[in-house]
Amino acid sequence: MKLLTAISLLFITLLITGCATSSIEQETHTEYQTYVQTGELSPVTLFTDTQGNRINLNSSQNAKLLVLFATWCPDSQRAMNALKGSDLNLDPNLDIIGIGREENKEALDKFAAEYEINFPLIADKDRSIYAKFANAGIPRLILLDKDNQIVKTIIAEGENPLMEVQW
Description:
Blueprint: H1 2-16, H2 23-28, E1 46-48, E2 54-56, E3 63-69, H3 74-84, E4 94-101, H4 105-115, E5 121-124, E6 140-144, E7 150-155
Parallel strand pairs: 3-4, 4-5
Antiparallel strand pairs: 1-2, 3-6, 6-7
């Protein structure tokens, strides 16, 4: 019984601390680091979504919002729900792309159906995309202008994850 209680307390503690970092990150990183700065070009411009479509950011003259998230993360789930219900999701001048950190196609397809996501999702199974932007912290919102220059990076934790998204 004590073991079950201890495990339950550990699970609740990990859930409360958020999903900004995995347990490995918590041991090795004490702060979030962002590897990209305002004014720099996006380090990644080519993607393949879960449906096999190639996405080239250079082919669009729209602003872009990259959403780096994880399906299991409550903050990411809140951010996706907020995004789904926002005017951003309907803006014809904004391309939204979700990048599932350490996610596979099957998990992202299930998440897209459950959350009624209508923008492309990219599986970043090995963090190769995420690692070009940051060391830890999800959800991360990366706002790009029409030329793919970084306008803003946001760690979108909390109750109002889209509060800082203005363009």
